[in-house]
Amino acid sequence: MSLREVARRIKETVNIVDVISEYVALKRSGRNYLGLCPFHADRKPSFVVNEEKQIFRCFGCGVGGDVIGFYMKFHNLDFVEAVRELARRFDIPFDLDEGDRVSASRQKALFEVNEKAQRFFVQMLWASRAGEEARAYLQKRGLSAETAKIFGLGFAPNSYDSLASHLKLAGIDLSLAEEAGLLVRREDGSFYDRFRHRLIFPIYDLSGRVVGFGGRILGSGEPKYLNTPETAIYHKGALLYGLFHTRDFIRSAGFGLVVEGYLDLLSLYEAGIKEVVASLGTALTAQHVRQMKGLSQEWYLVFDADEAGLKAAMRAAPIFLNEGLFPRVIILPQDEDPDSFVRQHGARAFLDLKEKALEIFDFLLEILRTRHPPTPEGKLAVFRELEPALMALKDPVLLDLEVKKIAERLGISETAIKRSLAQRKPHPRPEALHRSSPAYLERVILEFVVHYPRFIKDFEEIGLGEIFQEGVHRRLYEALKTVGEQISVEDLTFDDLELQALLSEILLSPPPFEDVPPERVAAEIKGWWLKKRYQQRLEELLEAIRKAEASGQMEEALRLLREYQELRCQI
After folding, report:
1. Pairing between β-strand 299-304 and β-strand 256-259 as defined by DSSP bridges
2. Which whole number is the average pLDDT over 129-152?
3. What is residue 254's DSSP assignment?
């Protein structure tokens, strides 16, 4: 039996209400059950379980999925472990097919090779002469051996084959270490170490397994920081550095801090400020924010008051606001970062800055107003930069409050701001598909096919799936293509909690344009897509005509022109 078949048997056999009731006090409310969410500090019931569709969703922190997803999230298990445990509990045979055994075995092997590499790096840091430089660096940065050992820090020697030789002696297939991102293959087929002469920061998943590494170079050289590339077990858009070690402190304190670097986090932790996470050298993603929201509603972003800090805040604001989190921003003095500030001034001074933190729109306004003159053009420029964050606000009351604040600060009428926002917001009728943004179209079409999967075949015939870029929307659309007579949307099983949360969110929401017949919406979607493809073809033909004329191929140019004119008539 395949892993998917076992999972499907579980979903067919096990009532999600019965399972979740063991951990959450549920009370029936109409067609749903309500309770306090077990994944964040819920003050009023926002956790919904739908028995008919066998899914759950928290409208406070955004988590959601099926019974397997709940079990994964609550017990910190991966998909295979959760399926195995539920199958055991409910007497469902668990005998995986060869393909699933190989896949699970491969993942396990990647974790094991990372664990061996981690032990090697730790040994090099604490028990080798080569590690003296790294130990001195830690001391210089004010990090104790205790903190370094809690986070599993290590050292990669200044050698091209130290780790490769160690793993080979340990009987590890070096191609597996390459797959884990630890080694790089040369053209002649040999391997060399990816991390050399670097302080090593292991990156853990929420189960405490090493999924990858970050390395800071000691001395001169580029890049300053180097991370494991994307692998089957390392996805930086879904991981936050330090979260495995600090999540209990965040839950207990009721707030969390977000910093941008490994050493920023470690220095704060060393100083006793342990409610902190760090991004992995990349911008924050919606999945990061959902993880934070599951721990606390109160978050503080620690940015420099410079151009980089402003850009980071501008990127972060819509992501947080879209997920229903409203962070405050801690502003550091000029030329300071969390690491340098807390080492020089101490934890108390840092926490004093926290008490003075600005609501994110106040921060953006304060910084932007210093960058633009108080002229009509300058005020318009400030508003245009704030507009994406305002557009991300879903709550009309909150939007009204922020508009009032911005209107007062900039001397612009609330009516003008609201009119500008209304003009940019997607039109709520299907005709608006023809003039909407790609991101909005992608989401609307995905929601439509979740509620009306019978149209997927028609959409596939005209190649509509090309609209979905790589990411969670693409993955869900590909899964929906399997829906048919034998399987319904509710029967889909995912080992990806992000996919489960997205599907449950859409299933528990009304379909787009619900007051319009779905056949008409489908026709509008197909019309928009065909027009888009025709326009692309017209542009290609014009370019081909220009090239044919330039090279003197007049007969070919006339043929292309006729095709162009025929296509224009079709449109």
Report:
1. parallel
2. 96
3. T
Q: What's the CA gap between 492 and 477, in Å, rounded?
A: 12
Task: Please state, as a whole number, how many other Cβ atoms lie within 10 Å of the Cβ of residue 25.
Answer: 12
Q: What is the DSSP string of 483-506?
A: -SSS--GGG---S-HHHHHHHHHH
The secondary structure of residue 241, as a DSSP letter, is: B
As a whole number of angstroms, the distance between CA 200 and CA 210 comes to 12
Of 424 and 56, which is predicted with more confidence?
A: 56
Decide: helix, strand or coil at residue 33. strand
Distance separating alpha carbons of residues 112 and 120, to the nearest angstrom: 12
The label of the residue with tokens 């430089």 reads 133
Q: What residues contact 174, with CB distance under 8 A and at least 6 apart?
A: 164, 167, 168, 183, 191
Q: Is 3-89 CATH 3.40.640.10?
A: no
Residue 359 DSSP one-character state: E
* Superfamily holding 104-233: DNA primase, catalytic core, N-terminal domain (3.90.980.10)
CB neighbours of residue 526 within 10 Å: 16
Collapsing DSSP to helix, strand or coil, 550 comes out as helix
Q: How many CB atoms lie within 10 A of CB 341?
A: 22
Beta strands in 315-410 (DSSP E): 328-332, 358-359
Task: Answer whether 260's CB lies under 8 Å from 301's CB.
Answer: no
One-letter amino acid of 499:
L
Cα–Cα distance between 309 and 491 in angstroms, integer? Answer: 44
The identity of residue 163, as a single letter, is L
The β-bridge partners of 304 are 332
CATH for 243-367 (3.30.420.10, 3.40.1360.10, 3.30.1330.40, 3.30.300.130): 3.40.1360.10
As a whole number of angstroms, the distance between CA 515 and CA 526 comes to 19
Alpha helices, DSSP H, located in 128-217: 132-140, 145-150, 162-169, 174-179
Question: Whole-angstrom Cα distance, residue 280 to residue 227?
Answer: 8
Say what the pTM is.
0.63
Report CA-CA distances (Å) from 149 to 13, 140, 201, 486: 45, 16, 11, 52
- What does the block give as tokens for 400? 């009204």
**Residue 565 identity:** Q
The tens digit of pLDDT for each residue in 62-103 reads 899 999 999 988 887 888 888 888 888 888 877 665 555 546
Whether the bond between 223 and the residue before it is cis, its omega within 30 degrees of 0, is yes
Nearest to 349 by CA among 272, 241, 253: 272
Q: Walk across the sheet containing 198-204 and list its strands.
A: 154-156, 198-204, 210-217, 225-227
Which single residue is written with the structure tokens 């930069």?
385
Cα separation, 70 vs 500, in Å, equals 10
Which ranges in 239-306 belong to alpha helices (H)?
243-253, 262-270, 286-293
Contact partners, residue 347, CB within 8 Å, separation at least 6: 268, 271, 272, 273
Q: What is the pLDDT of residues 301-359, one digit of tens each?
A: 997 666 777 778 878 887 888 777 889 999 888 888 899 999 999 999 999 999 999 98
